[in-house]
Amino acid sequence: MFFSFEMSTSKTLLMKSRTFLTILAFCLCTSATLPLQAQSLYEIKFSDKLNTQYKAFLVFFHENNCYMRIAYNTDNRYNVVEVIYKMEYGSTATGLKYCMLRGSNPVFITEKTLQQSYYPDHFIWFYNNSTQQYDDLYTTDDSLFRSENYRRTISYVKLDALKITDSYLREFFGSDEMKYTALKKMCGITPVVLKPLDQLLPAKLHLVIVANTLDPKIGISCAVDRTNLKNEFRQVATALGIGFSEYIVDDYNFSKEKVLSTLNSVYPGKNDIVLFIYRGHGFRWKNQTEKWPRLDLRTSSYVQPSAENSMNLKEVKDILDRKGARLNVVLGDCCNDEVNTSAVTGNNYWSFQVDNTSDVSKLRNLFVNSRGSIISAAAKPGEVSWASTQGGLYSISFVQAFHQEISYFATGYCNWETILSKTVQYAWNKSLPQNCGNCSPQNGIHEVSVTTY
Fold first, then answer.
1. N or C: which end of the chain has fewer CB within 10 A?
2. What is the pLDDT of residue 84?
3. Helices (H), ranges, 160-295
């Protein structure tokens, strides 16, 4: 079932408790720009105190969805174990920040003897205040994380999916596994044949982004999301072979007047898709009954909010619905509480590099074979939506959920309801105090009225 590979190992079967704290942590709150693409693949080589050598293959979607296949030799036996990982963040007793993946549920993929057991390991990256990054990957089997017991990993590299061979995958996967089949498609080993597009095309994707990029508090976050989301959906249109038009309201053009004129300039065809994304401040009137937030379109915080410099997210949806496009998607990454709340976190996290490898047939289900209207906001009434220099937690979560559902690994039918539900779930998890120290939980809201054919 597996190809073997040579490893210089200890022949002693390990029965000790090991912890694999691979600090491949995903940037929730600040640091480098988040690449908005699909799952990422990494290889990690490490050893334990007995000098047993391990080779690990990590498949990472987001901080609560990743797994690792770990291969090693003991007593002339080749072993492969799968471990599930989730992110954790914290500080040492001296205040040094770290992030980690904590493993659970180890399962032997190769045949297991009665005497064998495997306990998930820990690896850790510590935050360097000078570089503002998490530097160097260490491993330890000390549950107290005493510095004298840290060991540097042998290697840690990002893998180019299109350079991975079938024999490499067979080091970690059996030939009858669904994960193996999905990886072969992702890596281009198995050709993917798509049916010709149906009569719905020609079609075009109209992307409207409104971003408060000059705001002194959240401008950096909005600018990151603007750039990443624009690149993301341009690639979607290219993959689908449909037209693409972008309409950007940002910088000194940021105003209600400009938003309305931009919406009026969008003339979608009957088979087109319109995607509207707002990144900025949001609020609600004290006596407001509408659950959707108002978009704060002021150019200065010294100007009082009014109907002249704001509009409800639902107003945007109503304007677009009247234009007759086949599919409208309206997203608002903003607060939904009373005026003048600032929701910015200063937490620092690690950022993954990821690969743009998706199942185009799933993209077609979302954009070509769907008809209807969608609206979603990052926070329910009375809540804030958290932002950071890396982007809004909601925007980051949306792209994560989107990539997960269009992946070759996803099972079942790809649909917008699942994507928006997972977006809300992931953003809520990111905003929990244990994951984002100064944050309060945000609970997004969404309504999906879409039919597929």
1. C
2. 92
3. 166-169, 178-186, 219-240, 256-264
How is residue 29 written in tokens? Answer: 């709150």
Indicate the length of the chain as a whole number.
Answer: 453
In this structure, is the dihedral angle defined by the CA atoms of residues 324, 328, 332 and 337, taken in order, positive or negative? positive
Q: Which residue carries 């079942």 as its tokens?
A: 412
Q: How far apart, in Å, are the Cα atoms of 15 and each of 74, 153, 365?
A: 11, 21, 48
Burial class (CB in 10 A: 0-12, 13-18, 19+), 447: middle
Cα–Cα distance for residue pair 39/59, rounded to 1 Å:
7
Q: What is the pLDDT of residue 234?
A: 94
Cα dihedral sign for 194, 199, 204, 207?
negative
Residues 6+ apart with CB under 8 A from 97: 89, 90, 91, 126, 127, 348
Residue 395 and residue 386 in contact, taking contact as beta carbons nearer than 8 Å: no
Predicted pLDDT at 357: 63
Return the pLDDT at 10: 32
β-pairing, 273-279 vs 327-333, is parallel
- CA-to-CA separations, 445 to 272, 286, 378, 380, 381, in angstroms, rounded: 25, 19, 7, 6, 9
DSSP, res 344:
B
Give the separation between CA 318 and CA 388, rounded to whole angstroms.
30
The predicted pLDDT at position 388 comes to 84
* Structure tokens given for 323: 């234009």
**Residue 332, token pair as written in the block:** 């608002």
Mean pLDDT by 10 residues, the chain (453 residues): 36 32 28 39 90 92 84 93 86 79 90 88 81 78 74 90 93 94 88 62 90 94 94 92 96 96 96 97 94 94 92 98 97 88 57 58 91 97 90 92 86 88 92 83 96 87
User: Distance (Å, rounded) from C-alpha 156 to C-alpha 263?
Assistant: 47
Cβ–Cβ < 8 Å for 393, 221 = no
* Fold (topology level) of 204-452: Rossmann fold (3.40.50)
In our burial notation (b when 16+ CB lie closer than 10 A, e otherwise), range 46-70 reads bbbeeebbbbbbbbbbbbbbbbbbb
For residue 128, the one-letter residue type is N
Radius of gyration, alpha carbons of the chain: 24
- Tokens representing 38? 């699909």
pLDDT at 347: 55
Per-residue pLDDT at 78: 96
